[in-house]
Write a structure and sequence with these properties.
Blueprint lengths: L8 E2 L3 E7 L5 E12 L3 E6 L8 E8 L2 E16 L2 E11 L1 H14 L1
Antiparallel strand pairs: 1-3, 2-3, 2-5, 3-4, 4-7, 5-6, 6-7
Amino acid sequence: MELRKYERYESRNLVDYAILDEGGKEQSRALARTLDLSIDGLRLETREPLQGDTRLRFTLGLKNHLIQAEGVTVYCRSEERYRHISGLSFQKVEKSDRRKLESYLEQLQ
């Protein structure tokens, strides 16, 4: 049974992300890429595993736009030694960035 509210679209995009502590302070930074996107989350491929409920602040590259947002990991599974897949739920996305994301997803339909 599918639990997602929104359809996901396969899309490879670069992501610059920072892991945040409980106070919102940046702990570390890394690069990753998306495997798919929806209006409320994404699937992320990283070199290092992310723990569940990890808070991230990230910049997502969508063609000619950069989207800045925050999210929380809902799962992580290891595929290979340096390939880890995480599900990320968006928590904070500015309205203007959400409109850019919506427009991008419409083009993928």
